[in-house]
Amino acid sequence: MSVNGPHPGQQVPAKPSPGWKQLLALLSLVLTGLLWFNGLLESLQRPSVGNALALRQLELQVLAEPAIPPAGRALLGGQAPLKQLRDELRHQIDQAQTPPPPSQALELALLNAQAGQAEQARQELNALQAQVTPEQRPLLEALGATHHPDGGNAGNLPSEPSRQSSEASRALGNSDQLTASWTLSPLQQQLVCQRLSAGPAQATLAGACASTLDPGALAQRQHQALLRLLGVSVAPVVLLLLGSALLLRQLWKRWRRQLPAAPALVGPPQNLVDVTLLVAGGFVVCGELLTPLLLAPWLQSGLGVFSRHPALQQALTVLGMYGGLMSLPLVILWAQLRHQGSPPQGGWLQWRWRPLATAARAGLLHVLMVLPLVTLVGWLMEHVVGGGSGSNPLLELVLNTANPLALALFALTAIVLAPLFEETLFRGVLLPVIGVRYGGFWAVVVSALVFGIAHLSLGELPALVVLGLGLGWLRLQSGRLAPSVVMHGLWNGLTFVNLLLFAG
Predict the structure, then answer these.
(1) Is residue 228 within 8 Å of residue 445, measured between CB atoms?
(2) Cβ atoms within 10 A of the Cβ of 39, count?
(3) What global pTM score does this model have?
(4) Is 15 helix (H, G, I), strand (E, B) or coil?
(5) CA distances (Å), origin 239, targets 89, 231, 236, 246, 407
(6) Are residues 93 and 128 located together in one domain of the fold?
(7) 81, 61 in Cβ contact below 8 A?
(8) 206: which DSSP letter?
(9) Cα-flanking dihedrals φ and ψ of residue 206, to 5°?
């Protein structure tokens, strides 16, 4: 990385701030330190999305196994994926500090029953009766009423047949009534239907199970699962290899001094006090602390009309909260720049979207180059340091959402709004202000550290810092902000698509 200090033609650093502003900035910085420290510690208590992804991949392997060519089963399906799924599910439930979701407990009971552990399955289903809502119990009662074709009673629920509700018996033939209150993955739905079809309702089974167990539909889902499995297992390997080749090429060109020199670093004429007030005061104290307190009650009240569509309600809440978080920092930035005179060519933030093709190309190339580095850091955290906790809650929301409109709103927040806002703060303002005073190297490092910490995820912090280094380096080398926004959006987009493939 070249460039270490001011260049000819750069703006003169801003004048020193008055004492009251320095005091306010110091107070904001102290509050930010306390909030971020507490947020990072709390992130250790959040579950890792990696556990959910591990289960989803094993479910994909089970669903896709019949469609996998024999030569590729060892590579894609592993050895005995159904047993692997049952063992992993049991491990995660045993290690969890809170009761598992009812759908997971149900899945484990069905897998145990399928593996011949009828008594264990019966106990697990009995225990699940007390954890579910009254609307969910008919399914458990119907599952407990099923029998093996040989007449054996596998995993009956209560030992008192009189407690088997007549309602469940009547609904046994229509799985839609039984599963309406459950949120089931494709594999869980298939296991439920297979279990119901083994009982006395075999001849009359209708609703969702009729299509689930239809041979043609089943084969189609198996091929779809195979395509998704290829997308989450083979495609990342291809991207990693391509990214590694591009990264080695870039390093070779740098060693040979074939890379062009970085352009002059141009940015807003702010001092460190201004930036502290913007990031610490506007973004953290006002955006992350005060905005939720003030905005959450209004959103909860206004979005109450969507209570029958919880996924859509969650998506609108996330969008509204992020919009509120963005608003005040952007207003502060506008107020700081409105009296700074005529901006340089390209504006104070140096967006410079045109030519758009070069921005898109640079963003894509740098996403591929940073991918191997982020992957390596993530692997080290997982296998050496023992990371695996504190994932962004938005990942779980996307993974467990099936509503198309809700997913579109999540995508809008993650792929459009987040890159625009975060790059404005960290690479549009923070990086050039630091770079003018301390050089490009420290500008990239500091902006990456602040970017990583701001996500309040201790388990993902090293990977986020590496991503931030890539974003900052691109901003420095390109001399404009647009490629970094594109790179950030592409990174979030790849993550989003990967979650959709897992979710199905």
Answers:
(1) no
(2) 18
(3) 0.87
(4) coil
(5) 29, 11, 5, 10, 24
(6) yes
(7) yes
(8) B
(9) -140, -170
Whole-angstrom distance, CA of residue 344 vs CA of residue 11: 8
Dist. CA 449–CA 446, nearest whole Å: 5
pLDDT tens column, 163-207: 444 444 444 456 677 788 888 888 888 888 888 877 554 445 566
Q: Which of 464, 448, 443 is nearest to 392 (CA)?
A: 464
The radius of gyration computed from the CA coordinates of the chain, to the nearest angstrom, equals: 27
136 vs 249: CA distance, rounded Å: 57
The residues near 146 (Cβ < 8 Å, ≥ 6 apart) are 154, 155, 195, 196, 198, 199, 200, 201
Q: How far apart are the first and last CA of the chain?
A: 42
Residues 28 and 147 in one domain: no
Asked if residue 251 belongs to a domain, the reply is no
Number of domains in the chain: 2
CA–CA dist 341, 434 (Å, integer): 21
pLDDT tens per residue across span 466-484: 999 999 999 999 999 999 9
Both 112 and 221 in a single domain? yes
In percent, the amount of the chain with pLDDT more than 70 equals 87
Instruction: Report residue 21 as tokens.
Output: 């502003």
Domain span at 272:
19-43+260-339+349-503
State whether the Cα torsion 314-315-320-325 is positive or negative.
Answer: positive
User: Do 63 and 31 belong together in one domain?
Assistant: no
